[in-house]
Amino acid sequence: MTNHTTEWSCAETSTLWTLYLNNSMSVCVLRYFLETVEDQQIREIIAKAYDVASTNESELKAVFWKGKHPLPIAFSENDINLKAPRLFSDEFQLSYILQMAKIGMATYSASLSAVFIKDIRTLFTTFLERTIEILDITTDLLLERGIYIKKPYTVIPDRAYLVEDKKYFSGLNPLVNKRTLNTIEVTHLSMNIETNQIGMLLCTAFSQTAVSSDVREFMVKAKQLAHSHIKAFVDLLLKDDIQAPMAADYSVTASHIPPFSDKLMMFHNSLMIAAGIGNYATAFSASQRTDLAIKYEKLSSESALLAKSGADIMVNNRWMEKPPSTADRKQLSQERE
Q1: Could you tell me which residues come within 8 angstroms of residue 72 by beta carbon, excluding any fewer than 6 positions away?
Q2: Cα separations in angstroms, 143 against 90, 98, 137
Q3: How far lies 335's CA from each of 173, 194, 329, 330, in Å?
Q4: What is the DSSP-derived secondary structure letter of residue 80?
Q5: pLDDT tens digits, residue range 149-159?
Q6: Residue 172 CB: number of other CB atoms within 10 A?
Q7: Residue 36 and residue 112: Cα distance in Å, rounded?
Q8: Domains of the chain
Q9: What is the pLDDT of residues 64-112, one digit of tens each?
């Protein structure tokens, strides 16, 4: 009879730890959204997303207790101010949930593929199914309201074509005309415009409500970087006379009262940067023009440098939790001497 161990490997340990932090943060953000949202239909979706994040957090907590693993510190009521005035428009909150659902789907899928323990695989599958439902109902309402950011439309080809020349991949040689973007490349450029638009508005809100001057300055830099990346992607589309996707009338109020702790805002920003770098890596591998690949590599480097400066702020303020680590065998050996 096969012995299916229930001892966690590094995959179970790392994915459970990461997902607990992410859901703990989401509970705080969505709880605040529930206090400020005005539109009833949007409120229902926020409430659904909040219930999902809360349930996920509780189920993850039970797994940690059952496995006798220490629970991450994560976030609590100390990281949220429910009395803070409205900071985001209802439409932004709805689009935010869509973007976070996309990040959640990518994270849960990757986590599911990494683990082997049956109960944890079942749990992650449930998380993924719940997130897909949130994505579906959010997309439906955004479409109904006419504020869903659609990808550009392209001409339908009359037949299938083969790549006839290696010039198809050229993008750097000034003596060779660049081919027009293909639909795969347009899709990734559009998606990265969308995610940066959400990130830029988040940084705008965080920059005007953060308590620490270091955090405020960091959020301004993050906002400026997101703006420059949006411009880079839009320019690439416009060169081929392709209309770039534009955000709806999302807005941030003029409030300076922070609904979230600086710790939570910095963690949230680091999560968005990590997701953005992941999106760039996917776009890099899917883009067949060399200039696009190099562009994604450059923008990824800029994002990584920003992430490093953010991590330094978090470490200096004792806001960054250390992921579970492997044993330091050298240190253990020295302790025996």
Answers
A1: 17, 20, 21, 24, 321
A2: 15, 12, 10
A3: 59, 52, 10, 9
A4: B
A5: 889 988 888 99
A6: 12
A7: 34
A8: 10-145 (1.20.1260.10), 176-316 (1.20.1260.10)
A9: 999 999 999 999 999 999 999 999 999 999 999 999 999 999 999 999 9
Give the C-alpha separation, 13 to 25, whole Å: 19
**Count of C-beta atoms within a 10 Å radius of residue 320:** 17
Q: What is the mean pLDDT of the chain?
A: 94
Tokens of 85: 């005035």
Give residue-wise pLDDT tens across range 193-223.
Answer: 999 999 999 999 999 999 999 999 999 999 9
Report field, pTM of the whole predicted structure over 0.85: yes
Question: What is the rounded CA–CA span in Å between residue 244 and residue 234?
Answer: 6
Q: Which of 248, 243, 236 is nearest to 153 (CA)?
A: 243
Neighbours of 46 (CB within 10 A): 25
Instruction: Choose among 84, 81, 85, 75: nearest CA to 53.
Output: 75
